[in-house]
Amino acid sequence: xxxxxxxxxxxxxxxxxxxxxxPLGVFVLEYDAxxxxxxxxxxxxxxxxxxxxxxxxxxxxxxxxxxASGEVFGPDQPVALRLLGSERSQxxxxxxxxxxxxxxxxxxxxVDIGIDARKVFEDADWALLIGAKPRGPGMxxxxxxxxxxxIFAEQGKALNDVAKxxxxxxxxxxxxxxxxxxxxxxxxxxxxxxxxxxxxxDENRAKCQLALKAGVFxxxxxxxxxxxxxxxxxxPDFVNAKIGGERCxxxxxxxxxxxxxxxxxxxxxxxxxxxxxxxxSAASTAVSIADAIKALVTxxxxxxxxxxxxxxxxxxxxxQEGLVFSMPCRSNGDGSYEIVEGLKINDWxxxxxxxxxxxxxxxxxxxxxxxxxxxxxxxxxxxxxxPGEM
Length: 390
Ligand code: LMR
Description:
Blueprint: H1 5-12, E1 27-28, H2 38-41, E2 48-53, H3 58-69, E3 79-84, H4 90-102, E4 108-114, H5 117-120, E5 126-129, H6 141-162, E6 168-171, H7 176-185, E7 195-197, H8 200-214, E8 221-222, E9 225-227, E10 235-237, E11 242-243, E12 246-247, H9 248-251, H10 255-267, H11 269-277, H12 283-297, E13 306-311, E14 324-330, E15 338-339, H13 347-366
Parallel strand pairs: 2-3, 2-5, 3-4, 5-6, 6-7
Antiparallel strand pairs: 1-4, 8-11, 9-10, 11-12, 13-14, 14-15
Helix pairs in contact: 3-12, 6-7, 8-10
Bound molecules: (2S)-2-hydroxybutanedioic acid.
């Protein structure tokens, strides 16, 4: 017998926490185009499954609606959203699913919610790992690495066991570079090159500040690289950036500002936002996740590049292997990327890139046990994380 949407809802609309062998579901729309406007759906691509952790949080609350609307994966890409929450957030997660339902997004074909990563990540084409504990007052950097690292080790194992082998993983929860590395180490079935840590937010911040200084619209700023860690050691590269196709350093003829104002402003902008909001950036982070995904699923403009933190193995800049490090990348639009070679690395950049590399190597040492490596010693890390949430 043909199932109607109402039947599905009756079957699946059970209180979160009660289901045993299926992801907790609020609703499931069947992907059956036979009774739809065929003209509209004929050229649609096959549905993709997008798993999102921290789905009841602020960032997701901005991001999910962008994804469901088609803004991120395109107007011909139907999506299934698989939302991962925690025991604490599972009722809120039902609220999120209800709001998604109420939006009547044509491309949104399925929403499932759950608190077990092994169920929620099943057959995922993308995993957007947003959920992480924010640093509480008095918590040291090492504590945060340990606490969130444990989450990402578990999620890596779950992805390894149940996600598609081609699954692309975008890590947002901080400290995102090292969390991505831990996740990767626990998911050997997935290609290391499918893991990203989000530095697109830093790139967007840098573009805006350069545009404001130059008195131009930010669309004209291109070729901005964020090198390294998503921490205050990150290096926003004004040396290779362009404004209106010209060298940024020719348009902004103020080396003092670029080195001493612009650079620290980008490195610490997330912290300043936490001070003002009392919580981390959410809307701009969601926009930058959307930008980071779009950068991988659409071809990069000729001559330009984008920043994303990826595995350093085989990189052309001499950064030590086995780190997740932000670098300039291009994509042909099929979800893959290549690192752009040949950027000019002057002494100023080299010295700072090295510092971020050392920081990431130190972080890796601290979490060696979470990566299945024994004997890692945890150096005392300079505190370059952003302040804890209030
Ligand atoms: C940001 O850059 O705004 C966030 O990553 C800050 C944070 O620590 O959550």
